[in-house]
Specification:
Elements (H helix, E strand, L loop, with lengths): L5 E8 L3 H5 L6 E2 L1 H14 L4 H16 L4 E8 L6 H18 L3 E6 L8 H5 L3 E7 L6 H15 L1 H21 L2 H18 L3 H16 L4 H26 L4 H30 L5 H28 L6 H23 L2
Parallel strand pairs: 1-3, 1-4, 4-5
Antiparallel strand pairs: 2-3
Helix pairs in contact: 2-3, 6-7, 7-8, 10-11, 11-12, 12-13
Length: 342
């Protein structure tokens, strides 16, 4: 006969129900001792799932002992689940591995909460299998609970699954049916930001605004005014949609852009000036911001003329062509000046 493979059946009690409800402390090593402690825990609290985990560990031991060299162990953490609990579990696991001389682990847990220590175990041993012990009647309920719990605990998931619906409900409560348009508009802006990878420049701008506010800089005035002008621009675009009574989606977009683009350009100039003041631009930095202004103006000019052409095809394409050429030379001149500034 060949040498039997050594396996460690590891039961995990992350919140130390064993220590709090019985007189025993972890680590609990051996079949007989685990059976004794599991019985004591079940008698102390018949509803505690950790007793089921330990009984299951003993059952696995009995099933595998003929084929493999197995040992069953229970490690216990701390009542306040977190860093301290996981540190204790890690220390107990190290002692167990040294004493039993086993690194291949069959992990037995009573749910997703205990499985959060898997990275700790993987850093000290090799998990060959994971067995979850859940009372059959409550398995689906527990799974749903932990899924919801993870969503709430994860900041990113919480913003999407709780923050977005909350904002939608609030806007609907304040503006009625008009709130749905606002909600769709916000969703559209979010998709544009994600689609064109604008998170970093927007984050930089928001950090600059926050810094200017907390430090009492003059640049905050420019940011605040720029934000107000943006709102005015949005209102101007909405008013033009109503004025031209656009029904086609392309005409609606064109009307909105035509009514708002120059006001948005003014807002961008104000914000860029605030940015220049915030970082105390000098030399080449000044011309870099001037290039941004030139680009903003050129885009505004082209967008205005393109929108006008969509709404009034009779004006012809000549003005749009001239705006494209004019805008190109403005941007080109600004870039060349920026590159030649020493």
């Amino acid at each position: 006969m060949g040498v039997k493979k050594k396996l460690l059946i590891l039961c995990v009690d992350r919140d130390d129900d064993v220590g709090r409800k019985t007189k025993y402390k972890g680590p609990i090593i051996g079949r007989d001792k685990n059976l004794k402690v599991a019985t004591a825990l079940a008698l102390s609290d018949p509803e505690d799932s950790d007793a089921n985990t330990m009984f299951y560990g003993v059952k696995l031991y009995d099933q595998l002992k003929k084929e493999k060299d197995v040992e069953v162990v229970t490690i216990t953490g701390y009542k306040d689940v977190g860093i301290k609990s996981d540190e204790i579990l890690g220390e107990q696991l190290e002692k167990v591995i040294k004493k039993t001389k086993r690194k291949d682990i069959v992990l037995v847990t009573d749910g997703a909460e205990d499985e959060k220590i898997i990275p700790i175990i993987q850093g000290k041993g090799n998990i060959v299998s994971t067995q979850r012990v859940v009372v059959k009647q409550s398995e689906n309920l527990e799974g749903a609970y932990y899924m919801i719990h993870d969503f709430i605990e994860d900041p990113k998931m919480a913003k999407i699954f709780l923050g977005v619906p909350a904002l939608a409900l609030l806007l609907y409560a304040l503006f009625g049916s008009t709130g749905w348009r606002i909600i769709l508009g916000i969703l559209g802006i979010y998709l544009i930001i994600k689609g064109f990878k604008l998170e970093e420049p927007i984050n930089n701008l928001m950090m600059s605004i926050k810094t200017s506010l907390t430090s009492g800089k003059t640049s905050f005035f420019f940011y605040a005014v720029g934000s107000i002008v943006v709102l005015v621009g949005l209102k101007g675009g909405y008013d033009l949609i109503q004025m031209v009574a656009a029904t086609d989606i392309l005409e609606i977009i064109a009307a909105f852009l035509k009514g708002s683009i120059y006001i948005m350009f003014l807002a961008s100039i104000i914000i860029i000036l605030g940015r220049m003041i915030s970082i105390q631009s000098k030399g080449k930095d000044i011309f870099r911001h001037i290039t941004l202004m030139a680009l903003s103006f050129s885009l505004s000019l082209v967008i205005y003329e393109a929108s006008s052409l969509i709404l009034m095809p009779e004006i012809g394409i000549y003005r749009l062509f001239v705006s494209i050429v004019f805008g190109f030379f403005i941007v080109l001149a600004s870039v060349l000046i920026e590159r030649n500034v020493k």
